[in-house]
Amino acid sequence: MFRRLLALALCALLAPPLSAGDVGDGVRLEILDGGRTERGTYLGAIRLTLPEGWKTYWRAPGDAGIPPQFDWRGSRNIGAMAFTWPAPRVFDQNGLRSVGYERQMVLPVEITPENSERPVRLKGRMDFGYCKDVCVPGTLPFDHVLDAGAGRNPAIAAALAQRPYSASEAGVRAAVCRITPTEGGMRIEAHIEMPSAGGTEYAVIEPGGRSLWVSEAATTRQGGTLIASSEIRHDGGGAFALDRSAIRITVLGDSHAVDIRGCRPG
């Protein structure tokens, strides 16, 4: 936990938050249109483009990263939103690992309108981090009325194609989570029976609660079983419970990524 706090503190010391008009040259935020789906939902995407050599972060960015966050206040006619995160990459950053995207992030979002007869407006801001030699926190606004008549967008299609495989698609046979109490938290050890995702595999465990902190997972393989273990603590230092059905484990390999939702006791 100290390493994560140190990384964030260094970011704050090295550069103050940048806002619209201050963000460095070549940093752009766009809302992409993908039109209406057969279900009557809107398909769009948030595209963040960075200068050459810079990277930004995934939803679970690792000890050295800053997760993107969105403020949707100002948006209109939004009933529900569903994001599809493309498989990220693992980076080494000053001895720490981070998880994210190099040069560009395209985050598809499917929106169910409250009223199908009215337009959907996305208005708000994105807080994010981007790094090269130093990490810079930034903020950019967006305001866009989605085009219901837009056709297929190649950038959105490419991002959707880069999503991790589901557990069934990747041939996951079982996912078992062993949870034991520790001083001030819990230790989770996931045993995942699955074929290799290629090369050196890296697992990210998300415990399913915003107030829960999780350490970088130690990941090893024993034959057909991938073993990932992390320490979980409450941000406030208090007691907490874990819902195994809400635990999400993403395995990142050289060939593909795998998104595993939930695990059973074992």
Structure description:
By secondary structure, this protein is mainly β. It has 2 domains: 2-161, Thiol:disulfide interchange protein DsbD, N-terminal domain (Immunoglobulin-like, Sandwich); 165-265, Immunoglobulin-like (Sandwich). Helix content is 8%, strand content 47%. The strands form 4 sheets. Strands 3, 4, 6, 7, 9 and 10 form a 6-stranded antiparallel sheet that branches. Strands 12, 13, 15, 16, 17 and 20 form a 6-stranded mixed sheet that branches. The protein has a 4-stranded antiparallel sheet with strand order 1-2-8-5. Strand 1 (28-36) and strand 2 (42-49) form a beta hairpin. The model is unreliable at 1-22 (pLDDT under 50).
Write the layout of secondary structure elements.
Layout: H1 2-14, E1 28-36, E2 42-49, E3 55-57, E4 69-71, E5 80-83, E6 89-93, E7 96-102, E8 104-112, E9 121-131, E10 135-145, H2 154-161, E11 165-166, E12 174-182, E13 185-193, E14 202-206, E15 212-214, E16 218-222, E17 225-234, E18 248-252, E19 257-261, E20 264-265
Parallel strand pairs: 11-19, 12-20
Antiparallel strand pairs: 1-2, 2-8, 3-7, 3-9, 4-9, 5-8, 6-7, 9-10, 12-13, 13-17, 14-18, 15-17, 16-17, 18-19
